[in-house]
Amino acid sequence: MNNSRSTKGTNNLPVQTGDIEEYIQILYDHQKSCEKAGKYLEADQAKKRLAELKKELDQKNKYEVKDRHTNEKQEIEKAHLDEFNQFNEFWDQKMAEFDQEAQRVKEQVLQRHDEELKQFTDELENSIPVKPKDSAELLSLRKTEESLARQENYQEAHLTQQRILSMERDEYEKWNASRTTKIRNLISQLKLKQTNELGALQQRILSGQEEQRKIRSQELEKLLQKYQNVRKELTSQQNQEITRLDKTMKNQSIMQQSRMNSSKMINSQMKKGDEENFYIK
Predict the structure, then answer these.
(1) Model confidence pLDDT, tens digit, residues 9-41
(2) Which residues contact 34 (CB under 8 A, 6 or more apart)?
(3) Is 223 within 8 Å of 84 (Cβ atoms)?
(4) Are residues 34 and 40 in contact, defined by beta-carbon separation less than 8 angstroms?
(5) Where is this region: Disordered (predicted)?
């Protein structure tokens, strides 16, 4: 029997140093050295330990990939949340500034309307006489009164005087009513004009606010769609990476099983040869 091919294994595996990848290479080299030296049990022990380590390494790699994928998704979520918050902050400020400017313009218009109304009212009060012009009949009665007084016809002069006073009151009341109605109508016309102007301004403000809400909604939809696209692309890339990793691990497992089968066949043939040599001797 050839002593260089020891069939007894020894628990003399290399001590693990460094990371697992380096140790796997060291252990694989040790396995091949034992195989060449005929230390098949020790080679088998190294092979089994290699299988365990490779399984651990595969699990470690898979865990690291999944952990990295989780971190990548969290980073995307955080980036999207930051962008979403910035988006809302921008539009909240933009819409608030629009509302503030609209309120400022509205207050300016209201103040101008008040000033216009006061000035217009003063102009009407000053331009329209408080007392009416004397009518022709009233002027005629006054001449009659003067004539009767000169004639010392005091009774008739007194009666004429009373008629004049009554007529003055009537004409003043009519004039005052007409004057008040005219001023009120002119002021109403100005107020209506101001109301229409304020209504048009309010409509422009509402249209501007609605336009801002519409644009904000459209921009938000684009932002959300962008996030969905990025997330979908990342998920696709991660799935492809997992598939490649699983395929690599599967191929390595097949190659390892093939090497194990070859090793078993060689060991069996060599053992059979040793037995034949023993009987021949």
Answers:
(1) 346 788 877 787 888 888 889 989 999 988 889
(2) 40, 42, 43, 46
(3) yes
(4) yes
(5) 256-281
